[in-house]
Design goal:
- The structure holds 2 protein chains of 2 kinds.
- By secondary structure, chain A is α+β, with helices and mostly antiparallel strands.
- Chain A has 2 domains: about 70 residues, no CATH class; about 110 residues, Alpha-Beta Plaits (2-Layer Sandwich).
- Chain A is about 50% helix and about 30% strand.
- In chain A, the strands form 2 sheets. Chain A has a 4-stranded mixed sheet, with helices on one face. Chain A has a two-stranded antiparallel sheet with strand order 2-3.
- In chain A, helix 1 crosses helix 3.
- Chain B is an alpha+beta fold.
- Chain B has a single domain, classed as Cation efflux protein, cytoplasmic domain (Alpha-Beta Plaits), CATH 3.30.70.1350.
- Chain B is about 35% helix and about 40% strand.
- In chain B, the strands form 2 sheets. In chain B, strands 3, 4, 5 and 6 form a 4-stranded mixed sheet that branches. A two-stranded antiparallel sheet of chain B has the order 1-2.
- In chain B, strand 4 and strand 5 form a beta hairpin.
- In chain B, helix 1 runs antiparallel to helix 3.
- The longest helix of chain B has 20 residues.
- Chain B is elongated, with a radius of gyration of 18 Å.
- Classes of the chains: A alpha+beta, B alpha+beta.
- Chains A and B meet through strand 2, strand 3, helix 4 and strand 7 of A and helix 3, strand 6 and strand 7 of B.
- Strand 3 of chain A pairs parallel with strand 6 of chain B, so a sheet runs across the interface.
Chain lengths: ~190, ~130
């Protein structure tokens, strides 16, 4: 269950917990009926009550759909990818390591000023786990975007396949910004 | 006293080996492998290292029984090295060394690659400025 749904469920449960507590107090006659009737008449006269009821209804419908939806895919932004599952033990690589690797490879491509990578692992019951990498670039004007993108996909893809031995992956390259200006490297003297 | 792995009782007395020793053997065996840049430790191990303490069992978790052991290793691999090959070499070396020095049967060596080391040279002079 996602974070948003968890938050909704929290407030939903809190709300109905309070309502059920109120009912218990009524049944036990802790709250006098006169007071209850007075509060009820006041509440139904307010438009805010209608708004709250509407919101609760929408959340109810949403959570109902969530409970029935059988999601085949599940994405995680952290975790490990199993490379080898053998008798001697497992070999796994963390998503963070893959992300830093692809960021480095992308940053080294000529024309790239800055590269940020977002990685997710998609768990699919039918097709197996798939690594999704979304590479966001800041590029210069000295080289065509298509050439930069092709180089990144080739270099990163080769590294993932040959070195990390990850076969099931998807690379998306997005150019977020094209910057102008001279770039100079400041080298430290040894 | 720390958890003990092996207790060998013979006529001359008993030999007890702590599981920390097994961790150290595993750590040393892992770092011997070409392609391993280092071991990846947690916060406590990182602080200990900053204070100058050389932690040979950094990035190593062992689970031991009377006759068997399971090892988890958290490693950092050098950039360019074929990860599965390095990991398999680590598995074999760690298993052999532990079995050789302690007599334990190593049932599993799980290797978790936590990072890639790109080398000191690349880190030094990547200072860019855009005018």
């Amino acid at each position: 269950m996602g974070v948003v749904n968890r938050i909704l469920l929290f407030f939903y449960a809190l709300f109905f917990g309070a309502v059920s507590l109120g009912v218990i107090l009524l049944v036990l006659h802790v709250v006098p009926e006169r007071v209850l009737l007075n509060e009820y008449l006041y509440a139904v006269a307010q438009w805010q009550t209608g708004v709250i009821a509407g919101v609760v209804f929408l959340i109810s419908v949403h959570l109902l759909f969530c409970s029935f939806s059988g999601r085949e895919k599940k994405e995680t932004a952290s975790g490990d990818i199993i490379l080898i599952h053998g008798e001697s033990g497992d070999v796994t690589i963390s998503l963070g390591a893959v992300r830093s690797m692809v960021e480095r490879i992308s940053s080294n491509v000529r024309g790239v000023r800055e590269a940020k990578v977002k990685s997710t692992l998609e768990h699919n019951s039918e097709n197996g786990d798939c690594l999704r990498l979304n590479i966001k670039l800041q590029v210069g004007q000295d080289r065509s975007v298509a050439a930069i993108s092709d180089d990144i996909r080739a270099n990163a893809g080769q590294y993932l396949t040959d070195v990390a031995c990850i076969s099931n992956f998807d690379l998306d390259v997005t150019v977020q910004e094209i910057v102008s200006g001279v770039v100079f490297k400041k080298r430290r003297l040894k | 006293m720390a958890n003990e792995v092996i207790k060998i009782d013979d006529n001359m007395g008993s030999i007890r080996i702590g599981d920390e020793v097994v961790s150290m053997i595993a750590g040393m065996a892992a770092t011997e492998i070409e392609g391993i840049a280092g071991m990846s430790g947690g916060l406590v191990e990182g602080i200990a290292e900053l204070l100058g303490r050389n932690n040979l069992s950094k990035g190593v978790r062992v689970e031991v029984g009377e006759t068997e052991a399971r090892v988890d290793l958290y490693i950092i691999v050098k950039y360019g090295e074929r990860i599965p090959e390095v990991a398999i070499s680590v598995q074999e070396n760690v298993k052999n060394k532990i079995e050789e020095f302690t007599g334990l049967s190593v049932v599993e060596v799980n290797v978790y690659v936590q990072g890639i080391d790109f080398g000191e040279d690349e880190k030094k002079d990547d200072d860019r400025k855009i005018r």
